[in-house]
Design goal:
The protein is of the alpha/beta class. It folds into 2 domains: 122 residues, Aspartate Aminotransferase, domain 1, CATH 3.90.1150.10; 238 residues, Aspartate Aminotransferase, domain 2, CATH 3.40.640.10. A hairpin with a 4-residue loop joins strand 2 and strand 3. Helix 3 packs antiparallel against helix 9 and helix 4 runs parallel beside helix 9. The longest helix is centred in the N-terminal third of the chain and has 16 residues. It is globular. The N and C termini lie far apart (53 Å).
Length: 386
């Protein structure tokens, strides 16, 4: 018997070890609090990479999903699903993007993959202009436009991508006027990169030059969309209109959902895009619940208001060199690398925060339902850790 148990353990499947894990095992969550298997509560100011938009286990969200699951959870896109049309209408209304059409998929990487594919279809070209420290996903073309050599395999490097710095108009104009560019992709606020963003003047010049050169402008709103920046979309801070907008993360509050908004000037044809799971009944119910809570609880205004509180409190911390981001997509740039601070916050002060490619930046991404009291508690714990 002992030999059999030993053989089973030796031969059993294990996980492919690609994640360095913190020693915390969450088993339940409510609002902005996560509870682990030992009963310890943590203040969640990270939301699993900005995914938790309306708080953990929001009652409206749970009811929407339960009610839908009792009716039908999934069928393919070979049949009609009125929830998709309901979602498109609601999204267009709340975002102000009613001159776009919606294609639903499953993740941010898939959203950007489809956006880049559509741009190449539209233009007949293949080179992409992306920006330094940008992150657009881990799949084929999406990871090729991600400025991280370590996660680009040789098969990804076959893609034609040129990386440029923000706010270098001359370099951008030189590259886009070569005539071989299908798309420009950029985040209004960089997530993984560390909360950097272009100036309004640069963003508007990018949009202008894309139009002049018939290049598709893709706004990657995977992390900064759905109200997180204090407007529905981050690009709306700059008064421009992209051709395609990619969305995911906060749109499902933890349910895997993604999509692209495609301007109505781009024509659809059967078979152009496709997905098995995208836009399924549960995904639509989850996203509709998020939109309904955002609207009913005025969460975009809340994000904008709390940014002011955050900046006021953070400005009093001597070690903070710069406050970055907008709304509730925020960062604190310290005069030291933050890896050890993050560990201290988790293990000693029970506070979840995020890191970035910029090792000096602490990312702060609470649910849009966070309150001023929650923000006060965040700074109480941060100051104790410092």
């Amino acid at each position: 018997m002992e030999l059999m148990e030993k053989n089973l353990k030796t031969n059993s499947m294990d996980l492919f070890d690609v994640y360095p894990l913190y020693g915390v095992t969450p088993v339940s969550a409510k609002g902005i609090v996560v509870t682990d298997d030992k009963g310890q509560e943590y203040l969640d100011f990270y939301g699993g990479h900005a995914v938790i938009s309306i708080g953990h286990s929001h009652p409206h969200y749970i009811k929407r999903l339960k009610d839908q699951l009792e009716r039908i959870g999934f069928y393919s896109n070979a049949v009609q699903n009125p929830l998709q049309q309901e979602l498109a209408a609601k999204l267009g209304l709340l975002s102000g993007c009613d001159d776009y059409n919606l294609f639903l998929c499953n993740s941010g990487a898939e959203a950007n993959e489809n956006a880049l594919k559509m741009a190449s279809f539209q233009t007949g070209k293949s080179r992409v202009i992306a920006f330094r420290n940008g992150f657009h996903g881990r799949t084929s073309a999406a990871v090729a436009t991600t400025d991280n050599e370590k996660i680009n395999a040789p098969i990804n490097k076959q893609q034609k991508v040129t990386f440029l710095p923000f706010d270098d108009t001359d370099a951008f104009q030189y590259e886009i006027e070569k005539g071989d560019v299908c798309a420009v992709i950029l985040e209004a606020i960089q997530g993984v990169g560390g909360l950097d963003e272009p100036t309004t003047g640069f963003y508007q010049k990018v949009a202008e030059l894309c139009k002049e050169n018939q290049v598709v402008l893709i706004a990657d709103e995977v992390q900064c969309g759905f109200g997180r920046s204090g407007k529905f979309f981050g690009f709306q801070h700059h008064g421009i209109k992209p051709d395609i907008v990619s969305i995911a993360k906060g749109m499902g509050n933890g349910f895997p959902v993604g999509g692209i908004l495609i301007h109505k000037s781009i024509e659809a044809t059967y078979g152009l895009l496709g997905t098995t799971f995208g836009g399924n009944h549960l995904a639509c119910a989850a996203t509709l619940a998020v939109l309904e809570v955002i609207e009913q609880e005025d969460l975009i205004a809340n994000a904008a208001t709390l940014e002011g509180d955050f900046r006021e409190r953070a400005g009093k911390i001597p070690q903070v060199k710069r406050i970055k981001g907008r709304g509730l997509m925020l960062g604190l740039e310290f005069d030291f690398e933050v890896a050890e601070l993050r560990k201290k916050l988790i293990y000693d002060h029970f506070l979840f925060t995020g890191g970035a490619k910029d090792k000096f930046v602490l990312r702060v991404l609470p649910a849009l339902t966070a309150s001023k009291t929650d923000m006060d508690e965040f700074f109480n714990r941060l100051n104790k850790a410092l």
